[in-house]
Amino acid sequence: MNLILKILSYLYLCAAVQCVHQVAWLPCQFIDEHVFVNNEGHTETQLIHREAMLQFGQKGDTPVNPHALTFLITGSKLDLRRYVEGVEAEQLECELRRYSTEGMHVRWPVMGAQEYNHWFCCTLRHANGLFTVTGFLRRPSDQSPPGQQDYRKWPAIEDREILTTTVAMVIKTQSPSVRAGLGSQQKLHCQFAVDHKGPNVTVEWHWQHRGERTRLFSHTSRTGQTQGSGVGLRSLAGGDASYSLPFTKMSNEGTYICSVSVIPLFVSLDISLHIEEPPRVSLNVGPTLSLQEGGEQKVACEAESYYPLDVEIVWHVQDPAVSGQRVGAPLPKVLQNVLLSSHKHNQDKTYSLTAFFYLQASLRDSGRQFTCSVSHQSLRVPIKKSFILTVEEPISWMFYLTVGTIVVTLVVVLYVLLRYLHSANKQSVQKKPY
């Protein structure tokens, strides 16, 4: 019984702390802004990169780095670390910026919140592009904002100052960049959370490509009004705003923008969708090509229906006897007499390309292996197609003369034999009595 209680207690503690390794602090770049009017009367913004620390703890904690500006994130309903679980601190890139509400003042509806707030935006990116997390940090204040252009009068922040904040809203995508094949199903991930119940939230999706911008989906929780499709409303109620593409087409390529608004906050994440279609590779000859010495054959390697445009086709030749050797084998020789056709534009907007050469049959090349290697960004390794050349010696004129003589002789003998048989048959008919 005591063992069971200990196990239950352990599980409870694990649930309380989420039973994961959580970072206590992160080094960050605080990109501060200095907005001023230049000598020509134009407004300019000077970006100032400052060393900062993102520290998780309680109000009054000692800063990890007392020489740096510290953003101390204290407990709230939202914990930024939950959105980067399983990732080491060295894999995260942290950026902090001030956030302007453009003079919009709304009392943030959480217990104990003061009338006014200063806002900061914290973005955590995985170093390998696996996800992007953006959180809004709220710093309570008893001073009203300076007005619509609050960025002109940012309150000064000292280098060693400690800013005590809480996380008010978070948005995350696990697919900042998506590579999709034609006809595939794709789910563009976007999730969000707010630190209070029943927020008045607006979620939108836009598609942007080559200057064109189209709204795909919009939902406002206050009115319940929904426009467009692609996002499940039941999932949206739980903070999952992911957008679904049931059948990826070439026209779907572009940047998808997931935006979430809870007044006075607005945040968006860009998700790039790249179409990648691997080539189909074929040769115009079989696995073995037989030619007579001195003969010529056009050999073509075609890469079909690939996207995007860039593809590399290389022809190699190698003696198959040494191709299987792992040590000391000579490298395949690249053929230099290869010609490329022009790119063919297919109806589905993919491309095709042919690399060909004219093979002059020589006995010294008999038994050699010719390989076409096709590389494309959609392929992890190149596609290779090969054939083996067999060259036969040409039949000499003496052979033809001998064969011709034999044929003529046979014809003469056959003619004489037929004449003899005809004559014998005629004589036998004349001797027959009536």
TrEMBL record:
It is a single-pass membrane protein. Residues 1-19 form the signal peptide. Its main location: membrane. Keywords: Disulfide bond, Immunoglobulin domain, Membrane, Signal, Transmembrane, Transmembrane helix. The chain crosses the membrane at residues 397-418. InterPro entries: CD80_C2-set, Ig-like_dom, Ig-like_dom_sf, Ig-like_fold, Ig/MHC_CS, Ig_C1-set, Ig_sub, Ig_V-set. It is found in: Membrane. PROSITE patterns: IG_LIKE, IG_MHC. It holds the Pfam family V-set. GO terms for cellular component: membrane. Residues 155-268, 279-388 form the Ig-like domain. This is Dehydrogenase/reductase (SDR family) member 13b.2. It comes from Sander lucioperca. The lineage of its organism: Eukaryota, Metazoa, Chordata, Craniata, Vertebrata.
